[in-house]
Design goal:
The complex is a heterodimer of chains A (170) and B (433).
Chain A: H1 2-30, E1 41-47, H2 49-54, E2 69-76, E3 79-83, E4 92-97, E5 100-105, E6 123-130, E7 137-144, E8 153-159
Antiparallel strand pairs in A: 1-2, 1-8, 2-3, 3-4, 4-5, 5-6, 6-7, 7-8
Chain B: H1 4-27, H2 32-43, H3 48-51, H4 53-59, H5 65-85, H6 91-95, H7 97-125, H8 132-144, H9 148-157, H10 164-193, H11 200-232, H12 237-257, H13 261-270, H14 276-305, H15 314-341, H16 346-356, H17 360-372, H18 378-393, H19 395-402, H20 405-410
Helix pairs in contact in B: 1-2, 1-14, 2-14, 5-13, 5-14, 7-8, 7-10, 7-15, 8-10, 8-17, 9-10, 10-16, 11-12, 12-13, 15-16, 15-18, 16-19, 17-18
Classes of the chains: A alpha+beta (170), B mainly alpha (433).
Chain lengths: 170, 433
């Protein structure tokens, strides 16, 4: 019986105690890891309504200039999927590197019939995220690829629907 | 505004799909619940949304999913109560050293391996709104969980419930579930403390007070249900309503504390009397509507959030494969090692490891909480759902291989039925059990 208990406690220490100590070590070391900047959530875009309206494949809210354009970003690490709230189908994919967001996508389905637009037209987005702002903001530009006559639209966006959490400083 | 017609159509489509796919999975010796989990994936963007986007947009428009989600969450609340109802960690003590060692190793090794994996995945699949500690502990909780109900169903179907292997597996799974939920509660506290006005200490002390209250006040008080049942052979509608109110109050309190509604539901189940006849009676009252109607809605809700198409490129599939391997090595490997060191015969040790590696529905519950709290990203959620399906699906064939029925009959000495057999085994056509 004593032999059994000794074996049990030894096995318990090796297979439970050591892994738990290892876990503490991994958690401690892992605090120094840095993940990509968070841009996940709903963003409210502000831009010159006239410039937006003039852009082929204009964004959904262009019809009502008073309203800001809402954009959803779903983030998995560096990979981004952009869409509009209420639409299940993604409209653009992108990347975040450092503080820079870049995305490309087809026009929104309901706007692809507009003059100057079409299924082959690609919209581009490039912006810089201000990580110190709370809520986070980004500023950048929208353009139509391979369209020299199309103007570039500058915009500023503010994140709406996510509460930025503390940075991993625990 | 609620579109009732749309909601009824959605429920009808989900139920029909789950029944059909569940029946097909039963034909290939899989528990029905695995088929229903799979059916949920089929209804989401991974298949229906990919093959027939217009049909998918018609059936499941984004603005119509609120009601479906609410119904599925109610189903989960009742389901967690039922899981708590037949969770009895004290059973572990009766199973001896082997079960204690296996249960605890089956949690500790997946935790540390998941944390190591988290070091690799955190910079690649997370973002800076999540702390590494929350991310790593969540991965650990998700990888150390065992789906008690699915495990009970598998054991019952293979007539292993009352064997040494069966009783040990059930006791270990109960401990694994309880521990996994405690870890998850801690993570929820950490994450929500950053978002709400409650301090961590308020939540932690409140949780301790809640557990003490449930254990020392509510558990004895709940015996009145058992006494009335023994006396009258049934509970009146008022008694059932009182029980439901207690369950809801418990859930609301834990939600208010800043942990989660489901913890309260689970806790309410654990303090209920454990007399097998009483447990079966309560299950009879709640189980059918939950497992036949409400849980399939949860599977569909999960499927609608799972996008296998989001895993683009070899790198994403590499991460997914890595998650499956680490989850399996940690849970299955750890449990086998512990059982083998505890002098359980080799085949039975492997069988125990395979059973402990069954994640099933409990994993989906945890993953949905993680996605709601944004601890995991959509792509990681999809990978973890695939891992849950793979590890659950592999259980039956591997078990048939390492523990054929002839071996169980000749080697594993059947034990007397335990005083508290897992009550979910009593229902013959239950989706969960």
């Amino acid at each position: 019986m004593a032999g059994l208990n000794r074996k049990f406690f030894l096995a318990y220490a090796l297979l439970v105690g050591l892994p738990l100590l290892g876990l503490l070590g991994v958690l401690k070391v892992g605090r120094n890891l840095r993940a990509p900047v968070s841009v996940d959530g709903v963003w409210k875009l502000e831009a010159d309504p006239a410039a937006i309206a003039a852009l082929p494949c204009a964004l959904p809210a262009a019809a009502s200039p008073q309203d800001a354009i809402a954009l959803t970003i779903s983030q998995s690490g560096k990979d981004l999927v952009l869409g509009v709230p209420g639409e299940s189908k993604a409209t653009a994919s992108g990347l975040i590197e450092g503080n820079n967001v870049r995305a490309w996508g087809a026009p929104f389905v309901q706007y692809s019939a507009q003059a100057g637009c079409g299924p082959n037209v690609r919209l581009g987005l490039s912006s810089m995220v201000d990580v110190n702002a709370n809520p986070r903001t980004m500023a950048g530009k929208l353009w139509v690829q391979d369209c020299p006559t199309c103007a570039t639209v500058e915009f500023r966006a503010t994140r709406q629907s996510i509460t930025p959490k503390k940075e991993p400083s625990h | 505004m609620l579109d009732l017609t749309k909601l009824v159509i959605q429920i009808a489509v989900i139920l029909a799909t789950c029944r059909v796919v569940g029946a097909i999975f039963q034909k290939i010796h899989q528990p029905r619940v695995v088929g229903e989990m799979f059916a949920g994936i089929l209804l989401g963007p991974s298949l229906l949304g990919w093959l027939a986007p217009h049909a998918s947009a018609f059936l499941f428009p984004v603005n119509s999913l609120g009601a479906l989600n609410a119904l599925s969450q109610i189903g989960l609340v009742i389901f967690m109560f039922l899981v708590g109802l037949h969770t009895h960690p004290n059973e572990l003590k009766r199973q001896g050293h082997a079960a204690i060692l296996t249960a605890h190793v089956g949690i500790a090794i997946p935790l540390v391996l998941a944390a190591l994996l988290a070091r690799y995945l955190y910079p690649r699949l997370s973002d800076d709104s999540v702390t590494f500690t929350s991310f790593a502990l969540f991965m650990g909780a998700a990888m150390s969980i065992t789906a008690f109900p699915v495990l009970a169903r598998i054991l019952t179907e293979r007539k292993m419930m009352h064997t040494r292997l069966g009783t040990t597996a059930v006791a270990c799974a109960a401990v694994g579930d309880a521990t996994g939920w405690c870890i998850l509660a801690y993570i929820v506290v950490l994450v929500r403390a950053e978002q709400t006005s409650h301090s961590v200490w308020f939540t932690l002390l409140g949780t301790v007070a809640f557990i003490v209250f449930m254990g020392y006040i509510m558990r004895p008080a709940m015996r009145i249900f058992d006494r009335v049942y023994r006396r009258d052979g049934e509970l009146s509608d008022n008694m059932i309503a009182a029980l439901v109110l207690m369950l809801l109050a418990s859930g609301i309190f834990t939600e208010w504390l800043g942990i989660h509604l489901l913890f309260g539901a689970f806790a309410a189940g654990t303090v209920m009397p454990k007399d097998p006849r009483f447990v079966r009676y309560i299950l009879g009252k709640f189980e059918s509507i939950t497992v036949v109607l409400l849980l399939p809605l949860f599977f569909a809700h999960t499927g609608l959030r799972t996008s296998i198409g989001a895993l683009q490129g070899g790198q994403m599939w590499w991460y997914c494969a890595l998650i499956i391997v680490v989850a399996t090595v940690g849970k299955l490997g750890g449990s086998v090692l512990a059982a083998w060191l505890a002098d359980i015969p080799r085949n039975e040790a492997v069988g125990l490891g395979v059973l402990m590696n069954t994640r099933g529905l409990m994993e989906l519950v945890i993953l949905n909480i993680g996605l709601d709290l944004k601890i995991i990203s959509p792509a990681l959620f999809s990978m973890m759902v695939i891992m849950a399906l793979v590890t659950t699906f592999m259980t039956t064939p591997i078990l048939e291989w390492v523990c054929p029925e002839e071996m169980l009959r000749s080697v594993a000495e059947p034990l007397a039925p335990p005083s508290n057999p897992p009550a979910l085994e009593v229902t013959a056509d239950s989706s969960v059990a």
